[in-house]
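Hi R.,

Here's the chain you asked about this morning:
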Amino acid sequence: MTIETVPVPRGVSRTAQIVLLRAVAAYTLLGLAAGLFYREFTKANGFPEGLMGQLGLAHTHILTLGMIVLLIVLALEKTFALSSSRLLRWFFWVYNIGVVLTSAMLIWHGMLQVQGLESSKMIAGIAGIGHILIGAGFVLLLLSLRAVIRREPAASQG
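And the predicted structure, written out as tokens:
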């Protein structure tokens, strides 16, 4: 009895898929932990239930920008072999640094809000840099996708 393996499409990198999957797993854990932290931190500090603040946004931002977006990129890698473009590596690092900066500032600002303390312009500035990096990451992803799509031979219309 032999076990058949599914052939990997030409150009698809298992390494890129594994790196993306690990990042998805890390963001999943961080996002869930951020939700748990939000609940416990607000409870411990007597923050009124149902009152929205920056800390409550960290949970959904981490899960959406981290887990869901990178799951989509993983599917794109599997389909289009994005790792054949050098831009994917740039996307990965620029985008993830942006997500981490943005999420960290959401948590920091949110903790200050819950404690009734004043936030600083530095937090807003760093969060702004994080958002710029996320935007730049999306541009790099689109350029990478365009490069691999252009490289594929056009399907004949018969």
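The two ends are 41 Å apart (CA to CA).

Let me know if you need anything else.
M.
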